[in-house]
């Protein structure tokens, strides 16, 4: 039995994978007698290795180990006409036999995430007749060995399955000795235990939900809590907001908890705009007014939400939220906990590495890195297990220009404009750009440099000394940088470039400013996968960036822009000058960069990948709520 709208999700999977002959999904298992829904999925341990498309060779290898395509399958008619219809002679595994034939003929399969069907468990099922199932498996494997074009390795797998089937058939039909009888008894007791209720059931009566991917008919969606420190400032915060806003509202209920939310009457405009976007998308916003890292009382609303509300996935972003998310998620038995690390320097910061390794990594189900370079550092430097790490690249949406582009500081065809966008942190190394501007004036005396971005204050003014020491120990010597704008202004004054370097502060018209600039610069000393560079690419502005973190994954030197070593003002000035002197070459690179951004770094692709991870981890989770958390009933 499938949910009413299952085809709306299965058919697009076949459209996305034209080489796939069959699309299949998972199902919820419910008992016909007790009317209870099992926690374990229908596939259980027979799950395929991953969601997405399985090419023919790995598909055949997997199918020769086990069958997992038997729930809510949809097959292309042309594929069946090519390989032939079902052979009913095995009586119990006729579908298994046709899947093997499809894979052997070069067809792939598409696995659709979620549970789009309901499988009724009852005593009269053919799968409960162990002797019959072993006999059918032997027949199918014998036919595969004799009729299908198999490699030597695949023939070895077939012979192994034949041996297992023959042993099982003999053991269950004619048991010999105490070992055989004990194996048969254990198998039958286990089957009876699961069929009669066992420990693998939810509480509540079965009422099949029309919503795919979740068994909860009352809620109908998987609840995802996004945990982040701030809104409206920084690339990581913007990514968290975009993910929360763009989750499929049919399958997911999105909640975002902002732990350092200022009072709304005193919040800056970018925070108000972010709140409006979230609420317009139907995202519930839970603000916490933490004044400092030690303000534990401010966590009250989130604690109550985790205790009372059914949160299925807790997705935290950046170090502080990752740490707290791991602690609170484990304490309240959240089924899925994900930590999302945007970037950090991985140098020094011993306390932070210890907390990441021994608290966050052990408390979460998955650690997300934004680049392969960050993943390697998290393994080598932080000591986080490789199996708990996955790379999900950052991305942006296509911006919408306001239509009213800002004029350059001094309009004119010969006035070159350089722009850099980012929060005013030491990491962004805007001082290097300011020094490069002073060098550029030799060849381009009319050059103008715009630095766009606001400062972030991570401690309250009334207790900076105590918290400065704590935050510095957790995040490095530059974690508290409320004085960075003043430092940059002093440098501008010292170098005498006040007439050509302007700190614009936070702006809402960044895309228009980028479109009016000649060169966009990212001069960071370290990075993950910077959104600013993606915005440069989308705006069609020629890019000069430092060769750090995941920037080379965005910009190929000489193809999509120019890369220089970090901390070198002279190299930065030479690269900027090269683009200013050759505008036709700069325009070609900018065009290639825009095409690459739209092809490879679109936010909707990132959100779909995370949705698959949410569903996959939620289905596999066996975590139970602890006694001190209120039990939540799941009417299904």
Structural description of this entry:
- The protein is an alpha/beta fold.
- The chain folds into 3 domains: 7-195, Spore Coat Polysaccharide Biosynthesis Protein SpsA, Chain A, CATH 3.90.550; 222-395 and 604-620, Rossmann fold, CATH 3.40.50; 417-601, Glycogen Phosphorylase B (Rossmann fold).
- It is built from 22 helices and 18 strands.
- A 7-stranded parallel β-sheet has the order 8-7-6-9-10-11-12, with helices on both faces. Strands 15-14-13-16-17-18 form a 6-stranded parallel β-sheet, with helices on both faces. Strands 1, 2, 3, 4 and 5 form a 5-stranded mixed β-sheet that branches.
- Helix 2 (56-65) runs parallel beside helix 6 (152-173) and helix 5 runs antiparallel to helix 6 (152-173).
- The longest helix has 22 residues, at 152-173.
- It starts with 6 loop residues before the first helix and ends in a 16-residue tail after the last helix.
- Mean pLDDT is 80; it is low at 199-219, 404-412, 458-464, 473-480 and 631-636.
